[in-house]
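Notes from hallway chat w/ T.B., transcribed later so I don't forget. T.B. wanted the structure written out for a chain they're using in a teaching module, and asked if we could keep both sequence and structure tokens in one place. Agreed to drop them here.
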Amino acid sequence: MQNVYECLLDHLLARLQGKTYDGDEHSYSDEDRDNVKFKTERIWRHKVLRLNYTTYDLWREQDSLHPERQANIMVRAHEDETEGAAWHPYWYARILGVYHTVVQHHDDPMGFHQMDFLWVQWYGRDMSSPSGWSAK
């Protein structure tokens, strides 16, 4: 089982390589992880995540999420819709922390990049309990 630091390095390395997140984390070797260099050997923590977005009627809005104030979120699921009854369109999580760091992949000619990321606790679905409108 990977520790938190290895999981973070795997996530940052996948983003540095331009891989899109599809619900599965990519695993890398220790040699691959050694190719990720932190500019100042530091990760900064933030108190608030601010999200800018456009509404369905083309208004610009901003939401602020505070990890200390029950920052529960939902994101579009990346599961295949053909999985049957177990498929659900969203995943749910709680934001535990908001961070950024400055990193470089060893062979990247562009140099260092600021990477913003969240530490989240994913919620699981209880498939044994009836749910939905029919169970109401």
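Follow-up for T.B.: The chain has one domain: 4-135. Might be a good example for the class.
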